[in-house]
UniProtKB/TrEMBL annotation:
<keyword id="KW-0547">Nucleotide-binding</keyword>
<dbReference type="GO" id="GO:0042732">
    <property type="term" value="P:D-xylose metabolic process"/>
</dbReference>
<dbReference type="GO" id="GO:0005524">
    <property type="term" value="F:ATP binding"/>
</dbReference>
<dbReference type="GO" id="GO:0005997">
    <property type="term" value="P:xylulose metabolic process"/>
</dbReference>
<comment type="function">
    <text>Highly specific D-xylulose kinase which participates in the catabolism of xylose. Xylose is a major component of hemicelluloses such as xylan. Most fungi utilize D-xylose via three enzymatic reactions, xylose reductase (XR), xylitol dehydrogenase (XDH), and xylulokinase, to form xylulose 5-phosphate, which enters pentose phosphate pathway.</text>
</comment>
<dbReference type="Pfam" id="PF02782">
    <property type="entry name" value="FGGY_C"/>
</dbReference>
<dbReference type="GO" id="GO:0005829">
    <property type="term" value="C:cytosol"/>
</dbReference>
<dbReference type="Pfam" id="PF00370">
    <property type="entry name" value="FGGY_N"/>
</dbReference>
<feature type="domain" description="Carbohydrate kinase FGGY N-terminal">
    <location>
        <begin position="6"/>
        <end position="284"/>
    </location>
</feature>
<keyword id="KW-0119">Carbohydrate metabolism</keyword>
<dbReference type="InterPro" id="IPR042024">
    <property type="entry name" value="D-XK_euk"/>
</dbReference>
<protein>
    <recommendedName>
        <fullName>Xylulose kinase</fullName>
        <ecNumber>2.7.1.17</ecNumber>
    </recommendedName>
</protein>
<comment type="similarity">
    <text>Belongs to the FGGY kinase family.</text>
</comment>
<keyword id="KW-0808">Transferase</keyword>
<dbReference type="InterPro" id="IPR018484">
    <property type="entry name" value="FGGY_N"/>
</dbReference>
<dbReference type="InterPro" id="IPR043129">
    <property type="entry name" value="ATPase_NBD"/>
</dbReference>
<dbReference type="GO" id="GO:0004856">
    <property type="term" value="F:D-xylulokinase activity"/>
</dbReference>
Amino acid sequence: MLPPLFLGLDLSTQQLKASIIDEAENLLYEEYIHFDSDLPHHGTQNGAHYGDREGEVTCPVVVWLEAMDVLFDRLTEKHSVDFGRVLAVSGAAQQHGSVYWNAKGVEVLGKLDKSKGLVDQLEGGFSLEQAPLWMDSSTTKECRELEEAVGGAQNLADRTGSRAYERFTASQIKRLYDYDRSTYDKTSRISLISSFVASLFLGKVAPIEIADASGMNLMDIISGNWDLELLKLCGGDELKEKIGEQPVGGGTNLGTVAKWWVERYGFNEDCIVAPFTGDNPSSIVSLSSPGDAILSLGTSTTLLVSIPPSPDPPLCTTNSHMLAHPTAPGGHIAMLCYKNGDLARKSVKDQHYGGSWEQFDQSIKSTSSGNDGYLRFYFPMKEIIPDGVIGEFGFKAAGKLVEGEGGEFKPSYSRAICETQLLSIKSRLHRILPHSIGHLHRCIVTGGASANETILHLVADVLDLPVYVAATSASATIGGGLLAQFAWWKATKEGKKDKTFEEMREEVGATKSLKKVLDPRKHESEIYDAILPVYEECEDKIIEICKSK
Ligand SMILES: Nc1ncnc2c1ncn2[C@@H]1O[C@H](COP(=O)(O)OP(=O)(O)O)[C@@H](O)[C@H]1O
Ligand SMILES: O=C(CO)[C@@H](O)[C@H](O)COP(=O)(O)O
């Protein structure tokens, strides 16, 4: 019999990616479906629709169904993947977004017909055709109401790991419950995007995974169970039923793939489905050890630090997130998340460098650290950190606002956007680290922009950390493959049921194949240390300006 394979998926903001690995984590197949370019008839812009309500950002569920159909056709036709060798599947998805199944959808999911694709059968199976995404910021009112109901933002953070955020699922559900009750009532089950994809494999609505559940403002961050009072506040008594069973850990065996996968694509009928997690927790699974910072430069920018289990309660702040760890019970992940990451850099590249990353990079290379004393901030979308700021702002390093939105600016635009994005992380990094971590040893960079060595140089110098990358920038899909392998290993190997993820990695002899790319340069890092207070002063001014708008 040929050795087993493990399938990991990542349904991220702009694309659906798949990786197939073997037991030693060798990457055998990789494929992706880019929503805008592969499925242009849905009219997504960077994977999203921007709606009529202020801050409304969604994606039609049918885009993801079609991406699944096309992806598996491609894996079969282009790569001739033998799915009979795939013994477990898991994966990840952009966090926080939610999918609303109606009764018909749940019913059809349980009896998929092998002669038809997912779109043909499941279109019309959702009470909300447009799923709210992590970029949505339309639920500020619901957020403040939720915080008020539990005695303030810090209380909610202590309880769920985060204060109320617009993109988190609680406020999204509350908006539906408060303003669109008939749609809410037509909703039989609510999935996260991650558990929605797991449901497609399972042929029934899958439970929500614990790390992704901690991005909802609905789960008790200490116990890992649903907070019943919060459920009721957001969606009445009936929300408990719609959300389903308690969150489950990464690597849980949820059952085997639905018959449809066996009959249509030749999946092994024993192929295990393990819970899908969020893309950021999945990157932690594939890349991180405590003491590492992970910088994910995907559509969003996130900074993640894995925190080992501790008897002390996790450090929950109103400016950062605390997530449950997907594979270490009692462990956590501290996270910063920025909305204006890749899309803001891309717009600078298109506006000033003719759409060329080479020219974007060249402008950084031909200027020096600190950009001749200028700082320029880009927030084309309402930002998460600092909360609610929007616009473009340029400053002299002395903290003097040289122009407001738009206006003339001489030094390098590309250096400016990368420096201010990274200085924001530098100014917050120490505040999210618990004492148990002490200090960080290295920064592992992943996501699309980790392919850009010029940006990696800035990361090393600004954060003053050695920079590492993995063999592929698609760390979330590899994390999915590893979660699949973990579920299979525990379920099928004698005596492994209660073993840990690390024990599995040790047994199969897998090491994280990380490559050191750069060390920070002392002189350059000192320049950024010196700029930091000025950066913070400028950021405070922007917050004031935006408040008074
Ligand atoms: N050389 C580069 N420099 C900077 N960014 C890049 C480069 N190459 C690709 N990217 C960015 O990577 C992004 C995709 O990253 P990815 O991690 O796949 O996103 P997501 O997972 O959120 O869909 C693209 O939108 C693109 O702008
Ligand atoms: O909202 C968050 C994390 O809180 C985002 O990081 C999403 O999870 C989207 O991920 P990418 O598609 O940008 O990787």
